[in-house]
Amino acid sequence: MNWLKKLFSSRQQSSISSDDRDTTQSNAYDLIGGEETIRLLAKQFYQQMQHRTDTESLLAIHRAPIADSEQKLFEFLSGWLGGPQLYQQKYGHPALRARHMHFAIDQAMVDQWLICMEQAIIQTIKKPEHQQVIFQAISTLANNMRNKD
Questions:
Q1: Cα separations (Å) of 31 from 4, 83, 130?
Q2: In 3-state terms, what secondary structure has residue 22?
Q3: Chain segment 4-31, per-residue pLDDT in tens
């Protein structure tokens, strides 16, 4: 997460705080609005997925209820953006590639995921420079999930 640290760092912070945050990684979590914004981002992502006709195959691989996936995304993004490590506390290390290996993720699937995330970021995160940085980083992450040509 050095990319977030470099782009969002504006003050010295202690290594670990009482809510199990590694504040040396980033302060993006706080800069974009903390828990409320991250929760809204996850919600908006799944709303995009459910209401777009060009992401039907992406929606099809998500088990119902979608609220469970939305909660996991919120928990993951919380820690990934420098906030509380909620996902890791519940499930252990994210190991995203291993957790998604049983899904056939090709470039089309990555693109569908990114369409939803880009729109969610635009609708949720206020500052364009924050939108750009987060989308760029999450695009790299999403492309690393690809396991099929």
A1: 11, 11, 9
A2: strand
A3: 555 555 433 333 343 565 555 557 999 9
What dihedral do alpha carbons 57, 62, 65, 71 form, nearest 10°?
-120
Strand partners, 117: none
Residue 114 CA to residue 20 CA, distance in Å, equals 29
The two most distant CA atoms of the chain are separated, in Å, by 45
The residue with tokens 């820690």 is: 79
Model pTM score: 0.83
Q: Can you tell me whether residue 16 is helix, strand or coil?
A: strand
The values of phi and psi at residue 11, to 5°, are -155, 155
Give the whole-angstrom CA distance, residue 97 versus residue 114. 16
The CA-atom distances, in angstroms, between 140 and each of 3, 9, 51, 85, 95 are 11, 20, 25, 21, 15
Residue at 100: amino acid letter: H
The CA-CA-CA angle for residues 30, 36, 39, to 5°, reads 110
Question: How confident is the model over 43-79, as pLDDT tens digits?
Answer: 999 999 999 999 999 999 998 899 999 999 999 999 9
